[in-house]
Amino acid sequence: MTIYEVLAYLCLFLAIPNDFRNKRNIFWATAGVFVLIAAIRGLSVGTDTISYYYGFTESTTTNFTEKGESEFLFSWWTYFCRTTINSYDFWMLANYGLMIGLIAWAIFRYSSNRQLSLYLFISCGFYLASFNIMREYIATAFIVLAIAVMSEHWKYRLWAFLLIMLFAVFIHNSAVVALPLLLLYKHNVSKNLQALIILFSFILGFFYLSRLSDSLFSWFIPFVGDRYKGYLTYEGDSGGRGFIGNFGVNVMFLVSLFLAKRSTLEGLWFKTYFLGMIVFNLFGGMYYLTRLTDNLSIVQIIVIPLIANDLRREGKRKQLFYWGYCSLIVVYSVSRFYLKGLSNPDLLPYVVRMGILGM
Questions:
Q1: CB 307 within 8 Å of CB 256
Q2: What 3 state SS string does the chain have?
Q3: What is the dihedral of CA 97, 99, 102, 106, to 10 degrees?
Q4: Residue 359 pLDDT class (50, 70, 90 cuts)
Q5: 41 forms bridges with which residues in the sheet?
Q6: Cα–Cα distance between 178 and 161 in angstroms, integer?
Q7: What is the dihedral of CA 75, 80, 85, 88, to 10 degrees?
Q8: Using an 8 Å Cβ cutoff, are 38 and 96 in contact?
Q9: Does position 330 have pLDDT exceeding 70, yes or no?
Q10: Cβ count near 114 (within 10 Å)
Q11: pLDDT tens-digit readout, 175-185
């Protein structure tokens, strides 16, 4: 059993007893383990880990002052750490402390089952994806923070949302995918209309748009920087998904949609889940756009426990739905864990830097 499986199933085990699922100390200790495992991993663990290492050791001022560099914030932070502390270990701990800290805070503040949220964070592939695209996941953490701020009844929440989103975009440009939330947060969409939109986006994206990759590629080239042209010219596996896997993700959303209470549906967390599903269906089968999908879909780690808790609190009247939904969560998450999360061969074997520990 890999270290990832041990961590995932430990979280699932802790999510079951009432005494453990929301206990503050256990939650933050578990989140700390997430940070540590990611931050001390060896350079061979994760597709882009070695690139981040060289990006740190070779960081110069030109990384964030060159003309046209729109993601200067991460480059500036990297250069600052290299020239002041000059410790790759500190830099990685700080990056993952920030990333997982923001996501864990949102879980702690909004999830009705914190350990279940941590379990979904790793089993649905989000945590392990950060081993390959760390910078994008730092931006994603800021998106989560922006959604949390926007969910509060605060006078200046819109300005706070825009400021945080600006930070996210300057870290990784993919964060712009969250800007349509400005159109959704004050408007509610009926269950039936959401279901129709999801069905339409699934058919359009899976059967049509994924076949137009070359045309879309030629359209995108003039609008991206040199950093991303390698993704657009990639001619290998499109990064697409199989029909069964894609269908399962949509089934999970649709079941959640029709079981969710009105208050949950009208919250910004579920609206983000809805927008994320549209992005996933339309662009998840294209290599150069598939990375956009996690920026929004990650909120399901908060939404799914909310719906499960709502069903549990309904009492005997909804017990059948509750246990059915819990069973679906397990099937869905375990499938995602092995089809997405652990599918990258670069994640194994897990080793810490300098080869101190191998698992």
A1: yes
A2: CCHHHHHHHHHHHHHCCHHHHCCHHHHHHHHHHHHHHHHCECCCCCCCHHHHHHHHHCCCCHHHHCCCCCCHHHHHHHHHHHHHCCCHHHHHHHHHHHHHHHHHHHHHHHCCCHHHHHHHHHHCCHHHHCCCCHHHHHHHHHHHHHHHHHHCCCCCHHHHHHHHHHHHHHHCHHHHHHCCHHHHCCCCCCHHHHHHHHHHHHHHHHHCHHHHHHHHHHHHHHHCCHHHHHHHCCCCCCCCCCHHHHHHHHHHHHHHHHHCCHHHHCCHHHHHHHHHHHHHHHHCCCCCCHHHCHHHHCCHHHHHHHHHHHHHCCHHHHHHHHHHHHHHHHHHHHHHHHHHHCCCHHHCCCEEHHHCCEC
A3: -120
A4: very low
A5: 352
A6: 11
A7: 0
A8: yes
A9: yes
A10: 28
A11: 999 999 999 98
pLDDT > 70: percent of the chain: 86
Q: Report, as an integer, the average pLDDT of 108-117.
A: 96
Sequence-ordered list of residues with C-beta below 8 angstroms from that of 186, at least 6 positions apart, any chain: none
Q: Is the bond into 349 cis (omega within 30 degrees of 0)?
A: yes
Q: Is the pLDDT of residue 320 over 70?
A: yes
Contact (Cβ atoms closer than 8 angstroms) between residue 171 and residue 142: yes
* Interatomic CA distance for residues 177 and 283, integer angstroms: 12
Position 61 scores a pLDDT of: 65
Q: Which amino acid is at 43?
A: L
Per-residue model confidence as pLDDT tens digits over 224-245: 555 555 554 444 444 445 777 7
pLDDT at 235: 47
pLDDT (tens digit per residue) in 148-184: 999 988 888 999 999 999 999 999 999 999 999 999 9
